[in-house]
Amino acid sequence: MGAQDTENMSFEEKVRFIQTRLLEWYGRFGRKNLPWRKGDLSPFHKLVAEVLLQKTRAENILRVFEEFRKRYPDPSILAREDEEKLAEFLKPLGLYRNRARNLIKLAKSLVARGIPSSPKDLEGLPGIGPYIANAFLVSAYGKCLPVVDTNIRRFVERVFSVESKRDPRRDPEIWKFVARLLPSEKCREFIWALLDLSALVCKAKSPDCANCPISEVCDYRKRV
Q: What is the DSSP string of 57-69?
């Protein structure tokens, strides 16, 4: 598609272009082998993965995740764990005492209530906010829900010249905007593509625009 074609796109055409290109990119370059993206993982471990992914890189989680699954195959075992022992195990991730405390609280709630399947009920669990709730439901059950973190907000701001000065977790306009980008098919893969592209290519510093599959329609790319 030529520069003139992309220049005159409507919003809907631009969104369709992005959906197609990102799904193609994810098929080639996406982090499909992350264990928490695989279908054989239990909902419990998918939820734990989303909790652990907060404020750390996926590469760091890989250092402990498989061992975590072996030690804690279900929430009942995690709920009985000694907090200091768990904190020591999670030390490579940073914030390990808070992580250990919150995970044990979460496990106790899961033992008592089970794992909810709605965003509202999930957000009632210890340490679960809108991002984790939606990311888990996308991953575990394939629900088509928006997911917004700092990286995805940056992607939206750059590609569409949208400005947000609020914490992305508390900016309803950004969440609504991302919801408008979601395709009716392969929604889960598209969200993972957004997460991967915004983390690996559309980086805060030195974005790799030359290797971005949607640079043709990116407002930021046109300005630099």
A: -HHHHTTTHHHHH
Q: What is the pLDDT of residues 53-104, one digit of tens each?
A: 998 999 999 999 999 999 999 999 999 999 999 999 999 999 999 999 999 9
The whole-angstrom separation of Cα 11 and Cα 9 is 6
Please check whether residue 51 is in contact with residue 102, taking contact to mean a CB–CB distance below 8 angstroms. yes
3-state class of 1 per DSSP? coil
CATH number of 3-30+145-223: 1.10.1670.10
Q: Where are the domains of the chain?
A: 3-30+145-223, 35-141
- The token duo for 81 is 């764990």
Percentage of the chain beyond pLDDT 90 is 88
**Top-tier CATH class for 35-141:** mainly alpha
Fold match flag (3-30+145-223 vs 35-141): no
Helix axes 187-200, 150-160, angle to 10 degrees: 90
Q: Is 218 within 8 Å of 158 (Cβ atoms)? A: yes
DSSP label at residue 55: T
User: Biggest alpha carbon distance in the chain?
Assistant: 62
Separation of alpha carbons 127 and 100, rounded Å = 11
Q: Tokens 């369709």 correspond to what residue?
A: 16
